[in-house]
Amino acid sequence: MVAADDEESQIFAEYIQSQLTENLQGIEVTIKTMPSSARFAALSDGDYDLGVTFWQADFGGPINYLERFDSTITRGNYQYDELDELVAQSRAQALDPSGRWETLIML
After folding, report:
1. Can you list the pairs that 80-84 forms with residues at least 24 positions away whose Cβ atoms lie under 8 Å?
2. In sequence order, what E strands does 1-107 have?
């Protein structure tokens, strides 16, 4: 498991490790902590089995959460074409709050 080298991330990673090893017989979880830049590179390169990361919203709009899964932003090396299209559509509707809301609730 890849985690940041700060105390909060280490505590969280250790909790996940304990829950996995207690509840999934025979599983082994090794925690590899590293500075954020190295962790983001590992996540982007797919050099991990499980990654721990934190994020907090910048503002109170649904796009703030939904775009975390857009393939141009995510570090998880996955892509959901329909989500990417809807996020792009919602960005284009920035000056049309009603239309944007209708797009966002389709996600």
Report:
1. 83/107
2. 2-4, 32-34
The pTM of the full predicted model, rounded to 2 decimals, is 0.66
* Alpha carbons 14 and 3: distance in angstroms, whole number: 10
SS3 for 63?
Answer: helix
Q: Which residue has the tokens 């049309």?
A: 96
Task: Give the model confidence (pLDDT) of 38-88 as tens digits.
Answer: 998 888 888 888 888 877 888 888 888 888 888 887 667 778 898 899 899
Structure tokens at 78: 């996955």
Beta-carbon contacts of residue 76 (< 8 Å; ≥ 6 apart): 43, 51
Tell me, rounded to whole angstroms, the distance of Cα 8 from its chain centroid. Answer: 17
What contacts 24+ positions apart, CB below 8 Å, involve 54-60? 54/4, 54/8, 54/9, 54/12
Residue whose pair of structure tokens reads 């649904």 in the numeric block: 62
CA 102 to chain centre: 24
Kindly state the tokens that stand for 5. Answer: 């080298």
